[in-house]
Design brief:
Order of helices and strands: EHHEEEEHEEH
Radius of gyration: 21 Å
Structural class: alpha+beta
Number of strands: 7
Helix content: 40-55%
Number of helices: 4
Largest sheet: 4 strands, antiparallel
Strand order of the largest sheet: 1-2-3-4
Length: 155
């Protein structure tokens, strides 16, 4: 016997963030700025103001990476998969678990080495509606969580 719709409550299952490896290029840039800043501070021939400027730029890049990672997330609830992107200009997409047509896991060679992957979730409601969870840790586990939540929702 199914509970009445007003007595059925949605609850959160998990929140998924992209891996830090997704931002590897920006982290390498920050490391280069940091090392250049340290070199400029300790080198007798270099300008200390330039060193401080490079250190500040490295801090800004790392702060931006942290904010970008925090403002890209996917939430799995008992009823929906919700994608959130952006801080100032934001985008939110939702897919009902009952509308999921397929779940696909793609792992490139480097992603396999790092334990990452992409999970694509296609909707039965529209052929072009797709939520892509990019560079997430343990994509097989996430795909299985989606499958189990979908089966539980359909039951």
């Amino acid at each position: 016997m199914m509970p009445r719709p007003e007595t059925r409550h949605e609850y959160a299952l998990t929140r998924i963030l992209p891996s830090w490896w997704h931002f590897a290029r920006e982290i390498v840039i920050a490391a280069a700025l940091l090392s250049g800043g340290i070199y400029a501070l300790v080198s007798p021939k270099a300008n200390p103001k330039a060193g401080l400027l490079l250190l500040a730029a490295a801090a800004v890049v790392l702060a931006m990476v942290s904010v970008a990672r925090r403002y890209t997330s996917w939430s799995l609830t008992s009823d929906r998969l919700i994608e959130r992107r952006g801080m100032l200009a934001s985008r939110r997409r939702e897919m009902e678990l009952a509308d999921i047509r397929s779940i696909e896991v793609n792992r490139r060679v480097l992603q396999r080495i790092l334990g990452l992957g992409d999970v694509m979730v296609a909707s039965a409601a529209s052929a072009e509606f797709l939520i892509r969870l990019e560079n997430i840790p343990d994509p097989e586990r996430v795909a299985e969580m989606l499958r189990q939540a979908r089966l539980k929702r359909l039951a």
